[in-house]
Amino acid sequence: MNIEQFQTMLSEKGITLSGQQLDQFDTYFHLLVEWNNKMNLTAITDKEEVYLKHFYDSVSAAFYFDFTKPYKLCDVGAGAGFPSIPLKICFPELHVSIVDSLNKRISFLEHLAASLKLENVSFYHDRAETFGQNPVHREKYDVVTARAVARMSVLSELCMPLVKVGGFFVAMKGANGQGETETGEKAVKVLGGKVESITPFLLPIEESERNIIIVSKTKPTPKKYPRKPGTPNKQPIE
Ligand SMILES: C[S@@+](CC[C@H](N)C(=O)[O-])C[C@H]1O[C@@H](n2cnc3c(N)ncnc32)[C@H](O)[C@@H]1O
């Protein structure tokens, strides 16, 4: 996907990017490739592939969920910033918190956010299992996102405790998203949620399948979740 296609295809979905936002994506691409030479951030470094498989794919969450409001958003396991940094570039009103267990990725993100002059972004080097038990963060977010972190039952335990009652969890999945969500539906319920929608779509150009799963939080998550890493006999809730 070249930059013109990126701009046109987003504009067809109602997301119009200014010159400044396009410059931010350009800087993001260059820093991603530069830092990828010193640390493992992504296997995708070809420019057109980064625009398709990282930038467009991340922003595709906004085709199914309204990110235009000044929501408090937490991105669990964002790695090199996906999906929350592309969403923040497109929707500057968002207040973004990123939690990732790998400190070198957090260092990259801090540098990236400063270079892009992003406001209202915070980074936390932590595991979601402990972050979600911290009263500062527990049930404090309007929306929690996750892309390519864990299968739905495990992911729900990491993400649902962070969502406030009345908020949403947006999971970005590949082709197996539907099956995983059927298996993970019990976990979602135990954790206080309800699966509102599973929407399949094809990534343009290469036509690989994606699924966006939207879960609403209807009641508080029981205190024992998320369980700490190493909890005896810890199995996914299935
Ligand atoms: C496969 S990468 C995906 C990164 C990004 N979301 C994307 O779509 O490219 C998974 C990321 O989740 C982080 N991660 C895995 N388990 C985690 C946990 N329990 N708590 C916080 N971060 C975690 C890893 O450090 C890694 O950066």
From TrEMBL:
Places the protein is found: Cytoplasm
Predominant place of localization: cytoplasm
Any matching Pfam family: GidB
Protein name in UniProt: Ribosomal RNA small subunit methyltransferase G
Enzyme Commission (EC) number: 2.1.1.-
Organism superkingdom: Bacteria
Lineage, top ranks: Bacteria, Bacillati, Bacillota, Bacilli, Bacillales
InterPro entries: rRNA_ssu_MeTfrase_G (IPR003682), SAM-dependent_MTases_sf (IPR029063)
GO MF entries: rRNA (guanine-N7-)-methyltransferase activity
An example Gene Ontology CC term for this record: cytosol
Protein role: Specifically methylates the N7 position of guanine in position 535 of 16S rRNA.
UniProt keyword annotations, A-Z: Cytoplasm, Methyltransferase, rRNA processing, S-adenosyl-L-methionine, Transferase
Span list, region Disordered: 216-238
Amino acids binding S-adenosyl-L-methionine: 77, 82, 128-129, 147
Family classification: Belongs to the methyltransferase superfamily. RNA methyltransferase RsmG family.
